[in-house]
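Here is a complete protein record:
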Amino acid sequence: MFEHYTLKNGMEVILVPRAESPATTVMATVKVGSKYETKDISGLSHFLEHMAFKGTKQYPLPSDISTELDGLGAHYNAFTNEEWTAYYAKVRNDAFDKALNIIADMYLNPTVPAEELEKERGVIIEEINMYEDMPMWKVDELFSKVLYGDQPAGWSVAGRKEVVQRVQRDEFLAYRAKHYTSGNTIITVAGGYNPADVKEKIAAAFRGIMEAPDTPLPDVREKQSRPQEIVMFKESDQAHLVLGFRAFDAHDARHFPLMVLADLLGGGMSSRLFKHVRDELGLAYYIDAETHLFTNNGFVAARAGVAKDRVGDALRAIVAEFKELTERSVGEDELKKTRAHLIGGLFLSLETSDQLASFYTGQRVMNLAPLTPEDVAERIERVTAADIQAVARDLFTDDRLNLAALGPFKGESFGDILHIS
């Protein structure tokens, strides 16, 4: 059960009451992320998210917000991805009013103090350095780069160091004025809050928002005619791989068959990739498969950390599993198990109010009609073996195939392996 409505100024509100929950999450989301940026401001969405914690109208000192929220026993944070930036606090139900006002102040009234901006440059540079030293993160970034190249969809969400080092306060303020508007904003409240007057409280807390329609999401350029690869050197004891295919966006009717397909391939310890590449061949410690579908682009991919001297063997094994799905229909027992695993994982992932808030918010960011978990489960149950084979045949082709590899490589290419047909 949820309620979704839009105020006269265009701001959306999602209410997800759960009377049994001891906690409530307040989440304020703006539909802006790295895909909205240009090269000269790459990383500004993420940087601006940081600055919301560095002083607001009601809480002028950098420590004020954390002191207030810690005093409520809150779990709080913010995050930025390709298409949205969210600020949230999860609190006991009786602290809802206070949390709502704090999140609203962070969202509407960050002061972006010049001295704090200078300090935060160093913090974000070190965050970027941290990600550069995390191969599982870095190889995902490389995969976006091989898919989309030099356009916003192919850039790091964290941004470019040179932008972080030089961007000025007036650019932050202009970016906020353009994007942090009523038409770009979604306020989500989920959990055990008292429903009395909640709509009035939300409207009052955000009454100062700048009124403007939503900002159009830039197009993603999709162009590929043959398999592509990026192989990057990094001294390590393990090679990290992402091997996958361009897909479709989140609005496509094949969304649910693709979800089931990915789970069947790499969704658990009984999945095909785990059993074959790890258990039978002993080539990997971690291996999985997942889909990432956005408003106007998407992909499906397998990820693995493999023995550095057996990368070719691992890639051949993964390619073989992709190809198998195009050639042979999935058996009913395996399909039933996969659907149950996917549905069970969905419900277990939504046990808390913050997870529920993200679940519903993410759908609206992509302009989808919101589905309940029960709706999603019903659609997963409808997926047939024929649906899975059809989407595999649609997507698993040479002109959609891409590889990102990170490890102790010196001039290697795996192009001879990158063939499905």
Summary: The chain has two domains: 3-205, 228-407. The chain has 15 helices and eleven strands.
